[in-house]
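Sample intake sheet
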Amino acid sequence: MFQDPSGNRIAQWRDVTPQQGIVDLSLPLSAEPALGTYAIEAQGTRHSFSMEEYVLPKFEVTLELPPVVTVLDKILLLRVCGRYTYGKPVLGKVQASLCREEQPVYHGYHLHAKRTGALCTELTGQTDSNGCFSREVGTAPFNLTQSGYRMSLQAKASLVEEGTGVELNATKSCDIVSEIATVTFEDADNTYRAGIPYTGKMLLKAAGGSALKNEKLQLFVSYGDVRQNQTFLTDESGRASFELDTSGWTGRVTLRGHFKQVDRSSVFGRVSPSYLDAHRNLEPFYSKSQSFLKIRWLGGVLPCDQAQQLQVDYIIAREVLGNESRSLDFIFLVVAKGAIARILHKGLDLREGAGLKGSFSVELPFGADLAPAATVLGYTVLPNGEMAADSARLHVAKCFPNKQQPPKPQPFNQWGLVPE
């Protein structure tokens, strides 16, 4: 039975047979149903719901905070803005609060430091001509390094429209973190080929995710009893590229990317800042003859209408070639969309005097058939039956198959005619 807000029975179902213990019924409502509380009753069980008119607010309030605040930050920016539904800024009075709440104290756990409730700052002001109120807030009142409080800041704001007194509210929170910056490895393999340069990048990011440029990073390389250290400078994107000589590497090699050292001493009740290092353990790539092939990584998204040069490093053991081998063939298969899209060939002259360690390039034409990603598999089969191989993943920009390069302008002679 279905009743409207006036108690009138507006629908009833009789002799309903459940399907697997479930009854699915529906009742279309009119375009303008009566507002109020409706009731549904079945087998002595009664349920009600409310029908109300929704009025779209004529303006909205947004509250902005930084994505995170570190324990070393001295100030943060709080911003409150009001906008009408048609985009015009709202003029009015803003009241805001920013608080760090107490951490709940569980049974049997007490801090020695006495706490006096939430740590708060109150702000008031008027929106400007853009409908916004901005204020730099000092973090000292929140004792960001003091434990016993939540590792987050809670903000509340209200905007009272000038002239009408209409008030709307907004809330926002941001985390407090102790990790000031983080180093990570990019484009760095988990294996190395002894004798072929090992390449990669270190990326330095602040707690909020922004890249840190023009900062010094240290790279520590350890294997056996050997310890090496190099210093690099990050570029505009927060990255530092490195190329390491692997000719003396043996066994497991450990890489550590380091930014800053912090005081390891801890104080009870205090949160200490930290800088997270990058770690990578490298295992040697196996080859019976110590013959290797390495395709250098092509970074970023590659244009689909422009050929690229694949740089390839190689080491071929002399003893596997024998005395009769004068050349060696390298094959590169380009796989995209589950099929082989390109087959490239490179011949290497091994006549007397030619090195068995070096590098060469292979031109790889790109097209829409390779977008959005392709894999290059390069290999060579040595005379003893052993194969040296490597693969690389390529990311290709999307484009239309009919995109063509503009024709090259034809040269004209002194009479304005195209020469034959």
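Comment: The two ends are 93 Å apart (CA to CA). Residues 292-396 form a domain with the Immunoglobulin-like fold (CATH 2.60.40.1930).
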